[in-house]
Amino acid sequence: MIIEGSAWMCSNTIGLSELKKDKKLFLRSNSYNNSELNDFHDQIFKQLFHFVLAEYTKAFGDPPCSFVWFVTGSAGRKEQGILSDQDHGIIYEVKDSSYKEYFLKFGEFLSDALDEIGYPYCEGNVMSSNFIWCKSLEEWKQQLQHWMEKENWESIRFLQIFYDSRKIFGEHEYVQELRNYIHAYCRLHPNLLKRFMNNVMRIKKGVGIFGQFFVERTGSHRGSIHLKHTMYLPYVNSIRLLAIKESIQRTSTIDRIQALRDMEIYDEWLKPYESSFNRILEYRIDLFREAKTYEDVHYLSINQLTKEQRQEIKTLMRNGIKLYHQVHRIIEKGC
């Protein structure tokens, strides 16, 4: 029996509507922090996964082998905002063409269901419905090997995306196994870490040397600063570099900082950056509760800020640039 994703969606909107309703009710409340918000996103993911799996197996049978469903991007780092798109993939145990067909179709149903309840499709197609992100364990190792050996921008970008992956469903720790595969390669080929670093060298500055904000000059967000690029990503990318260097399995930026601070060489100088990043996560929630679209949560109009907020945001931006330069020196020295 062939069931297209769109047909399945039409017949299951009632079940998904309850999840969509729960999501809206939670996001309308004003009593959650970053940790609580991301725990809620996880709860929705798990409920949706089990709902889709139950319906899918009715039509296509039980999964043919063990598998893991993981999220990545901001979801993998447990740093999703109020509005978030979807980034996810599948790792299944046994390499078999019929298994690939089963899991790719399942990934399509998952992607459609996530979109239905308010997690838009990933523009970069980082979804279980894409064969690049839905593979057997053996194929995943081959793909990672290919990305690590191929010296181009896209391969490193894909490695960075995968490195932030976190399991949502599955008994086996395939994600950790594959992350260890990256760690082992880095130890044998230190130049890979520098390639990671070169990939994130271009930081979009949000504040000038005279303290002026660099705002968008055209488009619907004219007069706004791009918080994701100017304030958030410098911390995320810098700490990820250190996590790769030190073979850290944790995925959230804060957890990675704490794991690094357990090491004497990082403890004191990373302490203020931990506080800065926590403050950034607070801002992302407090300032974007009324955002209407996924794009809106990345832009902030400086006109809505108080004088104190402007000064603090400038400091957070400068600290992000400072952190990146410190990490750059560490990796260049190879120590």
TrEMBL record:
<dbReference type="InterPro" id="IPR018821">
    <property type="entry name" value="DUF294_put_nucleoTrafse_sb-bd"/>
</dbReference>
<dbReference type="GO" id="GO:0008773">
    <property type="term" value="F:[protein-PII] uridylyltransferase activity"/>
</dbReference>
<feature type="domain" description="DUF294">
    <location>
        <begin position="191"/>
        <end position="329"/>
    </location>
</feature>
<dbReference type="Pfam" id="PF10335">
    <property type="entry name" value="DUF294_C"/>
</dbReference>
<dbReference type="Pfam" id="PF03445">
    <property type="entry name" value="DUF294"/>
</dbReference>
<dbReference type="InterPro" id="IPR005105">
    <property type="entry name" value="GlnD_Uridyltrans_N"/>
</dbReference>
<feature type="domain" description="Protein-PII uridylyltransferase N-terminal">
    <location>
        <begin position="38"/>
        <end position="152"/>
    </location>
</feature>
<protein>
    <recommendedName>
        <fullName>CBS domain-containing protein</fullName>
    </recommendedName>
</protein>
